[in-house]
Amino acid sequence: MATAPAAGAPRLGSGHAAFALALLLGLQPVTTDVYLPALPLLTRELAAPMPLVQLTMSALILAFGLSQLLCGPLADRVGRRPVLLGGLALYLVASIGATLAPGIAWLVAWRVLQGAALAAAIVCARAIVRDLYEPVQGAQVMTRAMGGLGVIALASPLLGGLVAATAGWRGALALVAAVGAAALLYVAWRLPETLHERDPRALQPGPLLRNWWAVLRERQFRAWALLVACTYGGLFTVLASSSFVYMDLLGLSPGAYGATMAVGSASYIAGTLACQRWIPRLGLAGTVRRGAWFTLAGGALVVGVWAAGLHQVWAVLAAQCLFLFGHGQHQPVGQAGVVAPFPRAAGAASALAGFVLAAVAFAIGRWLGVAMDGSLRPLALGLGFWALLTALTAWTLVQRAAR
Question: Phi/psi of residue 34, each to 5°?
Answer without folding.
Answer: -60, -30
